[in-house]
Amino acid sequence: MQTLVTPIVPELPQLLNTTASNSTWVLTATLLSAAITTPISGRLGDMFGKRRLVLVLLALLLAGSIVSAVSNDIVPMIAGRVLQGAGLGVIALGVSILRDVLHPKRLGAAVALVSATLGIGGAVGLPVSALIAQNLDWHYLFWLSGLLALIGFGLVYFIVPVSTLRTGGHFDIIGSVGFAIGLVGILLAVSKGGEWGWSSPVTLGMLAGGVLVLLAWGWFELRSKNPLVDLRIAARRPVLLTNLASITVGFAFFASAAVLPQLLESPTSTGVGLGQSLLVASLCLMPSGLVMFFMSPVAARLSAARGPRVSLILGGVIIAIGYAVAIGLMTEVWHAVVVATAVGFGVGFAYAAMPTLIMHAVPANETAAANGLNSVMRSLGSTVAAAVLGLILASSAVVVNGHAIPTQFSFQLCFAIAAVVALLGVVAAFFIPRREPAYETASIPVISSPARVGTGATA
Length: 459
What we know:
By secondary structure, the chain is mainly alpha-helical. The chain has two domains: 371 residues, MFS general substrate transporter like domains (Growth Hormone, Chain: A), CATH 1.20.1250; 54 residues. Strands 1-2 form a two-stranded antiparallel sheet. The relative contact order is 0.14. One of its GO terms (cellular component) is plasma membrane.
């Protein structure tokens, strides 16, 4: 869903009969929707059943895909993309379901594998989307996403067990509204600041208003009996530092998706670009996602042997090294492939570690909400990366045949910033406690054998 419309972004104004400024909402709407709904759906999943909420979100994803597939104007397209963004909450809920249904000894490997599917989705999705956009009607992109949502719904319905672990209390409606308003203000200011002007009253007002609302929201949550997010648990050192590290990993991961395609697709006449098509550029980035997926068992074994903290530190170091190498290695197509693969390697270790660190530090009945907040932190990092790196690439460019092309220095500066941010994440991970009293997992009870049903023994 995140890379679905990437191939058609330049053509969106013409396809939807709108302005270039309005067409950017096709991307922004999904980001905002996912950031707002993920922790809310996580809390609802803790209260009413994670599997039930996964099915609801997949239904919303299907509905959004259909709305977008039949749209030719900007307003229904944005509405469809909002529904698709809501569906992204499935990721955090899916990871949380693993804690409920798997034996603790198998949990680490499963979490690593599911986390790595984020990379597979982007790695496979982008070239497939490029092929469809180049050879078929662009509406087929959304019919494909609808088909995937339908298949996912069926698989979850027939395979995933019903969640039995529930949290009591009432849903925090006021907290949810406050969280949504504050987060929208900040994310809009960050994602649209370059377009509106970073010093414009609208940008500054959105940013200041969002911060003030979130401060008031935090005060309210600390006094609520049934908070959307238990800030006392979120403030525990393992959770807080993991979330801070998640921001840096989200930033670093998005940097490769934002900078490398521009480097690959820029014309060779500038002396910097590599002159490749969108399809070739997406294929060059594919190894990044594949490495994330196939290295997940290694990351899980490392976390089991040395602790997820070590996996997070190692992942951050690998990412930083990859970007440091990119500063001087950016003149051949295979250079970009190497850098993307190194980043994917590091992100794979980091993504495998972060949900495990969170689940070790929170009660089982708050897993989905805590993982939802962690997903928001990664999204926040990606949003900041889009704003910062986009500003750098746009402000230092040369005009070639009427198109602004980033300079070599701007690419190198982006790589350097991504390396520094990754190292900041490593510093945060170093301060995560080596030994922390872990909450027990809460697997769904399973009857060992028919002969023992009368004894009530469970495994």
